[in-house]
Design brief:
heterodimer; A: alpha/beta; Elongation Factor Tu (Ef-tu), domain 3; Rossmann fold; Dihydroorotate dehydrogenase B (pyrk subunit), domain 3; seven-stranded antiparallel β-sheet; seven-stranded mixed β-sheet; globular; B: alpha/beta; TIM Barrel; 16 strands; 32% helix
Chain lengths: 254, 301
């Protein structure tokens, strides 16, 4: 899969509380992008945003050569990105890493997202639909305002919700939702904060269900060169950027 | 544009990529035609495999970054069996950065690499700040560097470049010791020891607390040290430390470097190394330098 370093123009920017939905268009034909892959975004402007920021791909429009990112403002880099205006240019390296393994037709899939970790599951659910697979989605947040674009996710499959404050869906963590007692799945895919992914991985392991998780370790190069973003696996330290970010839980020493 | 660093190491232009920032070259072939580079220096390799330090291994700092990777690699034999066959026919010089935790490891590693036809040079890493034994310990005293360079010199017959640590009081003395012990060239600087703290959590940002600082922020320090070393030694000096563009590279050459290495900047722009090579050419044309070698030490002061 060929990687590109490409300038994109911001064509739409829509705020969602602490997050922003950024639609970006390239003059170049986009390479093939698998759900779960990520981009490295260049943040110009200040000495404290020296390195690129790794951000998951929220959506892809092949016909328009567009990529959409759902960016949560967590630090100076992401705050700077959120402040960009329509028409501004953003340089990205893409596509990076390995995405989710696509299920076989007929397999029952559960996509579990927590907080901003729901972002890559949008493109994944869309691609699954295009392949004739309707996944089940389980999305969790601290409160209702964390569950961005919920109506858009619901188009791709039955969608369950948990919030820690009970403002929407069932109260509690995703692992406490009743769907775990009422339904069985062939494959579980997870993206969210590490403690949440570990809890879901434990649940999947107990049930003996195949499970992939998407990690977001601190990284510099995004290409497997600097060896900073390593995760401890059964094969030793491996780069999350190159061998991940998606890993089968059996490979991780969790 | 050709640069002859001696003992068979000839670069088609003065730009190489620094060890640990360019993988084995393969990671960057979508962005850079390796034939546009003077050479690539592959990831620091030790005689025995090393798992490196625990995560987290990096922290962003103002105009730079800290790392404490700790020389994660699968060892010299794995390099020879698995990686060398994949990269030996790259259309550029492929140099191996060799490190060790004791004298014997350096010597055995160098002997094994000596047998590889397509590796024209070793960059001897006596300056890694992230390994507990060896590494930088050899590079911070004249006696230490003399010993390791002299022993490796006995078994290694090709170009021996010695990568110097900036974490010393007088880097020119260290460079002179390396030269006297048989180094063909010196490269500098490796990373500067530093640390970063997460004030909210009251914890260090790196797993092993301290790490090596690199990136644009170290450039003035590196430039000063290259200038001091180039005045002191007769062997070629390879300059690195925060080079982000062709102007930076030209500055290092004016200070006395015969060639340069691009490091952390590869993370920000994966295509930067080739751009620096073109830019040096453009500078030479603009200023009427017939040969790129005319830039070496051309600082007027």
């Amino acid at each position: 899969m060929t990687k590109q370093i490409t300038d994109f123009k911001l064509v739409e920017s829509q705020g969602f509380g602490r997050s922003v939905l950024m639609r970006l268009r390239s003059e170049q034909v986009l390479p093939a992008i698998v759900p779960g892959q990520f981009v490295q975004v260049c943040v110009d402007g200040s000495p404290s945003t020296y390195l690129r920021r790794p951000i998951s791909i929220h959506d892809v429009d092949v016909e328009q050569n567009e990529i959409t990112l759902l960016v949560q403002q967590v630090g100076e880099g992401t705050r700077h990105l959120a402040a960009l205006k329509v028409g501004d240019t953003i340089n990205m390296v893409l596509p990076l890493g390995n995405g989710f393994s696509l299920p076989e037709k007929g397999e029952k899939c559960l996509l579990v997202g927590g907080g901003i970790g729901i972002a890559p599951l949008y493109y994944f659910a869309k691609v699954l639909n295009e392949k004739g697979i309707r996944p089940t989605l389980l999305l969790g947040g601290k409160s209702q305002s964390d569950l961005l674009r919920l109506a858009d996710y619901q188009r791709f499959g039955e969608t369950f919700v948990t919030t820690e404050d009970g403002s929407l869906g069932e109260k509690g963590f995703v692992t406490m939702h009743s769907v775990w007692r009422n339904q069985d799945f062939d494959k579980i895919y997870v993206c969210g904060p590490k403690p949440m992914m570990k809890a879901v991985a434990k649940l999947a392991d107990e049930k003996g269900v195949w499970c992939e998780v998407s990690l977001e370790n601190l990284m510099a190069c995004g290409l497997g060169a600097c060896l900073c973003c390593v995760e401890d696996t059964v094969d030793g330290h491996v780069c999350v950027c190159k061998e991940g970010p998606v890993f089968n839980i059996r490979r991780l020493k969790w | 544009m050709t640069i002859d660093l001696g003992r068979g190491l000839v670069l088609r232009n003065p730009v190489m990529t620094a060890s640990g920032t360019f993988g084995y070259g393969e990671e960057y072939t979508d962005f850079v035609d390796l034939a546009q580079l003077g050479g690539i220096i592959v990831k620091g390799t030790t005689l025995h495999p090393r798992e490196g330090n625990p995560y987290p291994r990096m922290a962003e700092t103002a105009s730079g970054m800290l790392n404490c990777v700790g020389l994660q690699n699968k060892g010299v034999q794995y390099f020879i069996d698995t990686i060398y066959p994949r990269i030996k026919d790259f259309d550029t010089n492929v140099l191996l950065n060799l490190s060790g935790s004791c004298l014997d490891d350096y010597v055995k590693g160098a002997e094994m690499v000596d047998a590889l036809d397509k590796i024209p040079a070793i960059e001897l890493n006596v300056s890694c700040p992230n390994v507990k034994q060896g590494g930088m310990a050899f590079g911070v005293t004249c006696a230490g560097i003399s010993q390791v360079v002299a022993e490796v010199r006995k078994v290694y017959h090709k170009h021996l470049m010695v990568k110097l640590s900036p974490n010393v009081t007088n880097i020119a003395e260290i460079a002179l010791a390396a030269e006297a012990a048989g180094a063909d060239s010196v490269s500098l600087i490796n990373t500067l020891m530093g640390m970063a703290i997460d004030a909210e959590r009251r914890k260090p940002k790196l797993s092993v607390i301290t790490g090596g600082l690199s990136g644009a922020c170290v450039k003035p320090v590196a430039l000063r040290m290259v200038w001091q070393v180039a005045k002191a030694v007769k062997i070629p000096v390879v300059g690195l430390g925060g080079i982000s563009n062709a102007t930076d590279a030209v500055e290092f050459m004016l200070a006395g470097a015969s060639a340069v290495e691009i490091g952390t900047a590869n993370f920000i722009d994966p295509a930067v190394s080739a751009k620096v090579a073109w830019g040096i050419n453009e500078y030479c044309e603009r200023h009427g330098f017939q040969e790129v070698t005319d830039l070496i030490g051309a600082l007027e002061c």
